[in-house]
Amino acid sequence: MRTAACLDHMAPYLFARIDAKRDALRAQGVDVISLGIGDPDQPTPDHIVDAMVAAIGDPKNHQYPDYAGSAAYRAACASWMEHRFGVEVDPQREVLALIGSKEGIAHLHTAFVDPGDYVLAPSIGYPVYSGGATLQSANTYFMPMREEDGFLADFSQIPDEVLGRAKIMFLGYPNNPTGACATEEYFDRAIAFCLEHDLLLAHDNAYCDICFDGYRAPSILERPRARECCIEFFSLSKSYNMTGWRIAFACGNERAVSALGTVKNNLDSGQFTAVQDAAIAALTGSQDCVAELCALYERRRDLVVGALRSIGVECNAPKATIYVWAKVPAGETSASFATRLLEKAHVVVTPGSGYGPGGEGYIRISLTTPDDRLLEAAQRMKAAM
Ligand SMILES: *Cc1c(COP(=O)(O)O)cnc(C)c1O
């Protein structure tokens, strides 16, 4: 048999070597602490689980779901957009349920990109932006992301031959992995650029509710003219500790939502309606659980930032997300520093180089480890350095 050529072009799994070392250490009985995984350690709040338990017994939910999402789920998404951002979206035409935002982001390529086309992706970012392009036999142009620009992807230097074949620009703020947040002025420039060059602007807003120090992350749809060119991805994964449930939604430009819906209608049959019912409970219920989660991550952020600075590792305290993005010491690479921390401190961190060509020289530390283990990891790193 012969597999598709595009599979040969998928980026190799850059963390494989560190994972193998971690597994070898664990096999020797070493207590390895992983700060590598961006997966919340806390359980899904009870009222959401209870809603699922009730929904699962309802025979109506046992049949094929509506591929676009139930009317009730899409209405809950629209009402959450209104409450959270003051943005009005039409639940029928401008909202689409997703089986996790990763699914929606990956399928957006199928809806917009032909072989040989380009997508514009940040040079440090979620691997699906470029991976989805590769699966369509399309190309990725990496927009530089520099620390001195606040890690706002620079779209001012894109060659004309790339722009002529570009279809989608991906952005995501608050940003995984850098923790950077966008300004309104930056969003406005990005929207103007995408309108000028006839691009779809796909904004990945998975961390909009994980904010600290009183910061409030915006929706790009709050900006003028965003509705003409933007689709925005929201996920319940991080805000409600629901990564395993696979539930998210996209909203924004009607043509983009409809095109993505056409792909999904032909590829999947939507998320289990009981999961959508649980998500309605999350979006329309008390948001106290989100505030508690933010307080937890904010405390852990301070712990990690303090520990890193005390060993001479430079990092900014992020205003949002569940990650601390730190510079590796002079003379080290992302991989060599991550390897040293693993070998000497038995702590796993993620090499920044795994997030794209701009990530070299950094590591990412995730805040999804219980406080006592995080403290222990910080002490081990101090002792090892
Ligand atoms: C976690 C994450 C998501 C959410 O993915 P789901 O598929 O909804 O779980 C999307 N984008 C980024 C950048 C993320 O880190």
How would a textbook summarize the main sheet? 7 strands, mixed
> What is the overall shape?
globular
Per the CATH scheme, the topology name of the largest domain is Aspartate Aminotransferase, domain 2
Please estimate the helix content: 40-55%
Bound molecules: pyridoxal-5'-phosphate
Strand order of the largest sheet: 2-8-7-6-5-3-4
Number of helices: 13
CATH C-level class of the largest domain is Alpha Beta
DSSP strand content: 5-15%
The CATH H-level superfamily of the largest domain is: Type I PLP-dependent aspartate aminotransferase-like (Major domain)
Estimated radius of gyration: 21 Å
Structural class: alpha/beta
Averaging pLDDT over every residue, what do you get? Answer: 96
Query: Which series of helices and strands comes N to C?
Result: HHEHHEHEHEHEHEEEHHHEHEEEH
Distance between the termini: 51 Å
According to DSSP, the number of beta strands is 12
CATH architecture of the largest domain: 3-Layer(aba) Sandwich
How many separate structural domains?
2
Low-pLDDT residue intervals, each spanning 5 or more residues: none
Protein name: Aminotransferase
InterPro entries: Aminotransferase_I/II_large, LL-DAP_aminotransferase, NHTrfase_class1_PyrdxlP-BS, PyrdxlP-dep_Trfase, PyrdxlP-dep_Trfase_major, PyrdxlP-dep_Trfase_small
GO molecular function: pyridoxal phosphate binding; transaminase activity
Keywords: Aminotransferase, Transferase
